[in-house]
Amino acid sequence: LVTKDVYMRALDPELYTLAHADSVRMRMKLLEKSWELLGQHWLGGIGVGNQTTMAAMITDELGGRITPLGLRGSAHDEYVSTAVEVGIFGWMFFWAFVGWATWSAFKAGSLLRYLPDEPEAYWLAVACQIPMLGMLFFALQTEVFHTALKGWWFMIGLSCFLLDHARQRLREAAQPQVA
Predict the structure, then answer these.
(1) At how many degrees (to 10) do helices 119-138 and 78-112 cross?
(2) How far apart are CA 101 and CA 90, in angstroms?
(3) Do 105 and 132 contact (CB within 8 A), yes or no?
(4) Which residue has the higher pLDDT, 118 or 147?
(5) Which residue has the higher pLDDT, 26 or 62?
(6) pLDDT at residue 62 above 70?
(7) pTM, whole model, 2 decimals?
(8) Which one, of 159, 66, 67, lies nearest residue 110 by Cα?
(9) What percent of the chain has pLDDT over 90?
């Protein structure tokens, strides 16, 4: 029922023993080197998209992944990778944006909740909140914002639209009705 390739890459229980935990070991090594780089370049970072510096720091074995552009390596943690790339000030800007985007989804839902004729918009705002939160946790294991994460960016746009829509509808509701 399962192809040999899938079994060998994901389902073989031997892969999850310490003797075969190369992926986890390499991730920990890359994470350690990321913290080292952050300590050295905490103010301005090493530059956005720089995935060669860290790979070059691992000298005892091949660390990273082979790509058409050469060897690349990253922390497999969005928050650490962003801090390493842009430094502390860029990292704070990054968190301000992520916080604002997440807040927009929740604020839209809380405002739409008070509009009884907008149940679909309310549930759409709630539906936007789920992937917004999911990405925050998913980012602990990969660089989700570095990839073309179209769904997350779409949720930001949709949440901002819903927030603006809810504010507009509440303003209209607050205005006195002229007969």
Answers:
(1) 170
(2) 17
(3) yes
(4) 118
(5) 26
(6) no
(7) 0.73
(8) 159
(9) 40
